[in-house]
Design a protein that fits this description.
The protein is of the alpha/beta class and about 450 residues long. The protein contains 20 helices and 16 strands. The termini are far apart.
């Protein structure tokens, strides 16, 4: 309880002001007073007031108008109204304007005021505490589970900040395991909708019929087993965000229904006739090429453009190897806090092997590999020997392991490998040949020679 809370008394009756000042100071509060609303506004603007106690009927301005003016100055404290002539209409108006409570000036109103003052200040304390906790939560979870110092991830973080402030639909693309849902959550938690629901649904995990009832709900008797009405996830996510993962797996019929929700912001429950309106931000994700699916008439073009207003592409882990040590340390810290043992560090050899591996399963595969190694490790250093075999073996050893029984054309294999690396280096440097040569530790002259040899366009 904030015993030293600052309280402002505004009343044009001197005797009431003095009575309240004596009582509240005796309770340990810091008290100031004003004889009219104008003076009260000036005092409230100049100090950090926690609570205002105001008469409802004053010569220069009513308590209701004073409250309205005070709120216009962004005053965030509590407000209690005193009145000798309360009416239901006045009370309702005061509460609608944001007053915490109103008190009748009866013969023994001080005892009631004491209770209401402490209740109002406790309510303010809880509100401030919740605001602080939400702010800290966003610091931890807003971007915290998205780890990366690489250029690609820094660009992604900037995009998330920009996108979060809007209500536009977002399409997140990327390979499995890259963290598409984490990006969706980061957008939600950094948006004005952060305090509302974030609902995630994997569209590929349901049949068409089940997905429809999951998203839109159903009415009693809509199908066998529908014993009552059920809200769908769109209703649950009202005012918040719904994340449609693997949206490319939806049927053509479902795509029509999703398009209608995006266009009209309304839908009907399965078996129902009532139009239900929702205010929901839609974020979608897929690891499939939707533009290619549109070309093959597997995905509606109009829906594709509706859900792809802002596209975000997540890079695979092999394209941001600089982030692997950061991610490994992050997972180690998480494991240390959740398991019954502690490992202090990751060995240099283990990190080197992790950095040289391509991680086809991306961040999810890295997390699983770290958990396996953590469980098997018996020392205070996570060693390479407990990493999965696919990670701990060198690229050369992996190639030897995959040696085909019938043999193969080594020269052709090496040429294909060289050509592939040249093309990838050009792609990563946006076609700048000098930089591509530097990436491959080659002279520019040698690089040009191989480009000509493999007919790579310049």
């Amino acid at each position: 309880m904030p015993k030293r809370a600052k309280i402002l008394i505004v009343d044009d009756e001197r005797s009431i002001r003095e009575l309240l000042e004596i009582f509240l100071k005796k309770e340990g509060f810091q008290v100031t007073s004003a004889s009219n609303a104008e003076e009260g506004l000036a005092l409230a603007k100049g100090t950090d007031i926690d609570l205002v106690i105001s008469d409802i009927k004053m010569a220069d301005m009513s308590g209701i108008d004073f409250l309205r003016e005070l709120r216009a100055t962004n005053y965030s404290g509590q407000f209690i109204l005193l009145t000798a002539y309360a009416t239901t209409e006045t009370a309702i108006q005061a509460l609608k304007m944001g007053a915490f409570d109103y008190i009748l000036k009866t013969e023994n109103f001080i005892e009631e005021l004491k209770f209401v003052v402490y209740s109002a200040l406790e309510n303010r304390r809880l509100r401030e505490e919740n605001t602080y906790l939400r702010r800290e939560f966003r610091k931890v979870h807003g971007m915290g589970n998205l780890i990366g110092k690489s250029k690609k991830m820094q660009e992604l973080f900037k995009m998330i900040e920009v996108v979060s402030a809007t209500n536009s639909t977002v399409m997140i693309t990327g390979e499995s395991g890259t963290g598409k849902e984490l990006v969706a959550k980061a957008i939600h938690l950094n948006s004005p909708r952060a305090e509302e629901s974030f609902i995630s649904v994997n569209c590929g995990a349901f049949t068409e019929t089940l997905l429809e009832s999951e998203l839109f709900g159903y009415v009693r008797g809509a199908f066998t087993g529908a014993a009552g009405n059920k809200k769908g996830l769109f209703e649950v996510a009202d005012k918040g965000t719904i994340f449609l993962d693997e949206v490319g797996d939806t049927s053509q019929a479902m795509q029509v229904k999703l398009l209608r929700v995006l266009q009209e912001r309304t839908f009907r429950r399965v078996g129902g006739t009532e139009e239900i309106s929702v205010d929901v931000r839609i974020i979608s994700a897929t690891n499939r090429d939707l533009s290619e699916m549109v070309a093959e008439n597997q995905f509606r073009e109009d829906l594709f453009y509706r859900i792809s207003v802002i596209p975000l592409d997540l890079p695979p882990l092999r394209q941001r190897r600089d982030d692997i040590p950061l991610l490994a340390d992050h997972f180690l810290a998480r494991l240390n806090s959740s398991m019954s043992k502690r490992i202090e560090r990751i060995s240099d050899e283990a990190l080197k092997k992790m950095e040289s591996y391509d991680w086809p399963g991306n961040v999810r595969e890295l997390e699983n590999a770290m958990e396996r190694a953590f469980i098997l490790e018996t020392s205070d250093e996570l060693s390479a020997q407990h990493l999965p075999e696919s990670v701990s073996t060198t690229p050369r050893m992996r190639a030897m392991t995959n040696f085909p029984d019938q043999g193969f054309d080594l020269e052709s294999f090496v040429e294909d490998l060289q050509k592939g690396f040249l093309e990838e280096a050009l792609r990563r440097t946006n076609g700048v040949q000098v930089k591509a040569a530097e990436l491959l530790r080659m002279s520019y002259r040698s690089f040009r020679h191989y480009m000509q040899k493999y007919n790579i366009p310049s």
